[in-house]
Specification:
CATH class: Mainly Beta
Number of domains: 1
Order of helices and strands: EEEEEEEEEE
Structural class: mainly beta
CATH topology: 10 Kd Chaperonin, Protein Cpn10, Chain O
CATH architecture: Roll
Largest sheet: 6 strands, antiparallel
Radius of gyration: 16 Å
Helix content: under 10%
Number of helices: 0
């Protein structure tokens, strides 16, 4: 069943929303900002380094999503996103096909990598 997310509707309360089709609502990880190189050099989040994929947490999924569930960690390109603000938090909407990988406890098949 698709997840519904409460969204503010003016001052009178909130209206529930649900993600449609194959859309995924993602919250970025806090640690995906500034990072350090292996030599200890601080690399700001605004630095342009090759096309770097980022991790986020799926907060809502549409009914047509087959691989991503709410709470999963998803890997995606920051170029394939649309931003939206919900309750003062910046979230990202993308299509399930734009997700490159999913990390979750329920995944049984393994590539031998631990993310």
């Amino acid at each position: 069943m698709p997840e519904t997310i409460p969204v503010p509707a003016g001052k009178g309360g909130g209206l529930p929303i649900k993600m449609l089709h194959d859309r995924v609502l993602v919250a970025l990880r806090k640690e995906d900002g500034d990072r350090r190189s292996s030599g200890g050099i601080l690399i700001p989040a605004t630095a342009q380094v090759a096309k770097r994929l980022v991790w986020g947490e799926a907060r809502g999924v549409g009914a047509s999503c087959r691989q991503v569930k709410v709470g999963d960690q998803v890997l995606f390109s920051p170029e394939d996103q649309h931003e939206v603000e919900v309750h003062g938090e910046d979230l990202i909407i993308l299509r399930e096909r734009d997700v490159h990988a999913v990390a979750a406890e329920r995944i049984e098949e393994s590539t031998g990598l631990y993310l």
